[in-house]
Write a structure and sequence with these properties.
By secondary structure, the protein is of the alpha+beta class. Helix content is 42%, strand content 18%. The strands form four sheets. Strands 5-6-9-1-10-11-12-13 form an eight-stranded mixed beta sheet. A hairpin with an 8-residue loop joins strand 7 and strand 8. It is elongated, with a radius of gyration of 30 Å. The structure holds adenosine-5'-diphosphate and magnesium ion. The site of adenosine-5'-diphosphate has 15 residues, from strand 1, strand 9 and strand 10. Adenosine-5'-diphosphate (ADP) binds next to strand 1, strand 9 and strand 10.
Length: 484
């Protein structure tokens, strides 16, 4: 039997507002426990929530970025349940009239093919507090700093068909929210986390199978691993004559497995009802137009422009547009050196390699975009050759000079293109290598091309890497062949 995987994601994004969604308390991460939850966040009697306009604007901008309908009216509802990290006894969310309607996102797969994933809707809600288990033996501590942090929950249609597609979708969402600047997207700090709904069905069958929901997965890699485990579990279960039950599961990264938390029968009846403390949100066309005019160029548009007007490959365009910081860095390098292909090669090659080795993000690159652009310019105008360029890059990286030009001067790396000087070096190398010259002369003509490498190496060494390699090659061949 052939099986097909069906996946739908509910992504929670913490919005980067400075204050909470219904109060003026700070949303900053990492403060001492319970120093950033005010009376409104705790739902003390007599307080009234006031909606944060910035959260509304951010949600709408997301909606516009994913080509969604933005309904004129959206409404906040109370979702009633008890949990220690929710002192109010309900979460303020949007059940029936979300702020963002149906839209779609384009994802890019490993083979550079693309696919559209539909978004069902996105709604605003407040985050809950956090339970702390480690420091309290046999008890639970509660930190309510996170209570009231604005969340945008983005619900996809069940359009994904593999773990790779799910990860690509999550990356696309991550890239959109960080381009928009509506979230820092920091998954390690919980700024973005997702519930993964997974089911399987026999290939060719139209009806969906019963799904399991894996809660709170907080990295791209965990999404893929959780799905891989879950798909295998469900197929095995069905093939052994069992049935998948609709339930909530938890992914355990240490054991690489999912475990049941609660089944649908135990699910809460949340008794949603419109929050009487908050008016419906009414957005007019002028407001939407204003927000639309503020949108930055988005990842999909940037990718398309990198391909069509800069002539980059689909792969380069995808990699360079994946994060806003990467795209901005690349564009600055390109602006300085004027050659898109060279800029792309250096950013993805030498620079990304060095950043990866030292586990640095591009925002913290020791070499600035301007410095890299100037370095590339010196290669393009033949001031230095490729080998010297790598030395200059290393020196910039290590802070041994402020600019490519300064390092080229200080280290004497200027390329030697003077034919006379190169010829003199070649003559010296030939005079110093009688055995190799004899070997060259005595070998088959088709093998000589390879043997010339030895002489090129010697001349480059004599020039301390500064001779123009094309000239060295050409002149060497002439001089050696003259000896035949
Ligand atoms: P609920 O209202 O119970 O949360 P929804 O219908 O809103 O359920 O779906 C929640 C998420 O689960 C959505 O992202 C949706 O795409 C996904 N989903 C729904 N049915 C399936 C299924 N059979 N297999 C995989 N994902 C599914
Ligand atoms: Mg749900």
């Amino acid at each position: 039997m052939q099986w097909e995987t069906v996946i739908g994601l509910e992504v929670h994004v913490q919005l980067a507002t400075r204050s909470k969604i219904f109060s003026g308390a700070s949303t900053a991460f990492g403060a001492e426990p319970n120093t950033q939850a005010c009376a409104v966040d705790l739902g003390l009697p007599g307080v009234l929530p006031v909606l944060n306009e910035q959260a509304v604007a951010m949600a709408v901008q997301f909606g516009l970025a994913v080509h969604a309908d933005i309904p004129e009216v959206s409404v906040f509802d109370r979702k009633n349940y008890f949990y220690p990290d929710l002192p109010k006894g309900y979460q303020t969310s949007q059940m029936y009239h979300p702020i963002v309607g149906a839209g779609d996102v384009e994802i890019t797969l490993d083979d550079e093919s693309t696919k559209r994933i539909r978004i069902h809707h996105a709604h605003l809600e407040e985050d809950a507090g956090k339970s702390l288990h480690e420091d309290f033996h046999g008890m639970t501590g509660i930190d309510l700093n996170r209570a009231g942090t604005p969340l945008l929950e983005i619900v996809s249609e069940p359009d994904m068909r593999s773990a790779k597609e799910a990860a690509a979708y999550l990356k696309a969402i991550h890239s959109i929210v960080t381009y928009l600047g509506i979230s820092d997207g920091n998954m390690a700090e919980g700024s973005m986390r997702c519930d993964v709904n997974v089911s399987v069905r026999p290939k060719g069958q139209e009806a969906f199978g019963t799904r399991a929901e894996i809660k709170n997965v907080n990295s791209f890699r965990f999404v893929e691993r959780a799905i891989a485990f879950e798909v295998e579990r469900q197929i095995e279960l069905i093939e052994d004559g069992g049935k998948v039950v609709q339930e909530t599961r938890l992914f355990d990264p240490e054991r690489d497995e999912t475990r049941s938390m609660r089944t649908k029968e135990e699910a809460n009846d949340y008794r949603y009802f419109p929050c009487p403390d908050l008016l419906p949100v009414v957005l007019d066309q002028a407001y939407l137009d204003h927000l639309r005019s503020q949108l930055p160029e988005l990842p999909a548009d940037k990718r398309a422009r990198f391909q069509t007007s800069l002539g980059l490959s689909a792969y380069d365009a995808h990699v360079l547009s994946a994060s806003r910081e990467m795209a901005e860095f690349f564009e600055e390098v390109h602006r300085v050196c004027g050659d898109a292909k060279q800029a792309a090669n250096w950013v993805q090659g030498e620079l990304s390699g060095a950043l990866n080795r030292e586990n640095l993000s591009i925002q913290n690159s020791p070499v600035s975009a301007k410095q890299l652009g100037e370095l590339i310019s010196r290669v393009l105008d033949d001031t230095i050759n490729g080998k010297a360029a790598k030395q200059v890059f290393q020196a910039l990286w290590n802070g041994q000079g402020d600019s490519a030009d300064a390092i080229i001067d200080a280290k004497g790396l200027k390329q030697v293109t003077d034919t006379g000087a190169i010829e003199a070096m070649i003559d010296q190398v030939i005079a110093d290598s009688p055995a190799q010259v004899a070997q060259y002369r005595d070998s088959e003509p088709e093998k000589r091309g390879k043997m010339i490498g030895y002489f090129v190496g010697q001349v480059m060494k004599a020039s301390r890497g500064t001779a123009n390699p094309q000239q060295v090659n050409g002149l060497l061949k002439e001089k050696l062949d003259a000896l035949l």
